[in-house]
Amino acid sequence: MNHQTPPPSLAQTQDEQFWMHPWEYMSSAGTAQRTVISHAEGIYVYDESGARMIDGPAGMWCTQIGYGRQEMADAIAAQITRLTYINPFALSAGPPAALAARLAQMAPGDMHHVFLTTGGTTAVETALRFVHYYNNVLGRPEKKHIISRADAYHGSSYLTGMVAGKDRDKSFLDISMPQAHLLSSVNPRRRPEGMTVQAFCDARVAELEAKILEIGADRVGAFIAEPVQASGGVIVAPEGYFRRVWEVCRKHDVLFIADEVVTAFGRLGHWFASKEVFGVEPDLVTCAKGITSGYLPLGACLISDRVFDQVAGDKAKGGSFAHGYTNSGHPVCSAAALKNIEIIEREGLLEKVRALAPHFQQRLHALRDIPLVVDTRGIGLLGCVECTVRGIEHSGMTPQEHLAFDADLGARIDRHCQAMGLMLRPIVNQCVFSPPLVITREEIDQMFDIMREGIVRTMRDIERDLGYRLAPAQATG
């Protein structure tokens, strides 16, 4: 019996010929054969053939309330017919003003000043530019250095790219700024052999303080950190790390920027994770993604009274924060955010996440008995399964060959899972996932059952290719 690959659809043909995607691998441009999604409902997306898949990554960490909510469509449509746009530089409107007030109410600490943006990158760009503006007004033009971490992701503009810590993203782009500094990874799995997690945490905190002193506290403007390094592979730093580095920043008068583009709006069971989960009241917080559950693009940078009041009013020295976007405070996007927040609150999704998280994490870590799995990590409804063949790095492969091997492994897992009804997001050999917050316990079990089988099938593929069986081994934490 002949099994012929169906001809590409019009959408796939147009995609291959004309749409240059984010992070496009240029060597495969025009031949990537991406899955075309035709529609979605709840936690599920459907491809053109009608195959249904659990949306494991919730789009890109963002579809908190799920797809196809009629009341979201109604709120968006109503705002479009009432007021589509305003000039945010000179005018105001009800939805953005109400959203700013609501975010200020929900935010940790004294964050009563909200700059609305178009997404996560522009939110972080706003925070970084405000750090520069702040120190210029205070007469400290040298205090502009920004410290970040390896594995961090803070956006894809020129400025935000400078403080991103994923080296492969910079391979062919000119992203260089002497005022940007990257510290080593906070991934406990990468700690030196024999070092305890507590000692590793102590070393990472000491590393930040040493860097501040090396540069000079009078020259360091800010430290930026994600509560969980999502795009870096859902890296959860050792317990206490986030608060301790915040304390170091306070000690040396360095602004602390919490990048909550992924962790805000319920992903860890709270509106914001900084204070409720990690005990930190940042100077600036950035957020996006779950703010509208992906229904429309929107982001925000929240600024504390402690910082804002030092450069406002009679202390402003006549300065203007000359920064903004055509679509800052877009009334339709703001209306979507307000309705999204209303739904999350009304349906008790924050409480639901806190109740489901222990089971989610238990199912995640149970995958460690599969020989191909070398690490599992997560928190809340965030997870990552890291897979590789132990010892493959000593097989004589070049670093490029090893990277290609791991990338192929991640792609195989994704293909197997997708065929069984689960969409993942492979980052090389790391399968990251963050399902919509409306997922049920039963659907979590279904997701992990598929994931387990997908990894096992990939392991059998690898064993067949290599010609030997992979020995069981406990993953390390």
Number of strands: 15
Would you tell me the structural class of the helices and strands?
A: alpha/beta
Cα Rg: 23 Å
The domain count comes to 2
Which fold name fills CATH's third level, the topology of the largest domain? Aspartate Aminotransferase, domain 2
Strand order of the largest sheet: 4-10-9-8-7-5-6
Q: Please report the number of helical segments.
A: 14
CATH architecture of the largest domain: 3-Layer(aba) Sandwich
Overall average pLDDT: 93
Which runs of at least 5 residues are low in confidence (pLDDT < 50)? none
Our measurement of the CA-to-CA distance between the termini, rounded to an integer number of angstroms, reads 47 Å
CATH superfamily of the largest domain: Type I PLP-dependent aspartate aminotransferase-like (Major domain)
Q: Helical residue percent?
A: 25-40%
Structure overview:
The chain is α/β, with parallel strands linked by helices and 477 residues long. The chain has 2 domains: 10-65 and 349-466, Aspartate Aminotransferase, domain 1, CATH 3.90.1150; 71-346, Aspartate Aminotransferase, domain 2, CATH 3.40.640. 38% of the residues lie in helices and 14% in strands. Helix 7 runs parallel beside helix 8 (241-251) and helix 12 (349-365) packs parallel to helix 14. The longest helix is centred in the C-terminal third of the chain and has 26 residues, at 441-466. The radius of gyration is 23 Å and the shape is globular.
Concise structural overview:
The chain is an alpha/beta fold and 477 residues long. 38% of the residues lie in helices and 14% in strands.
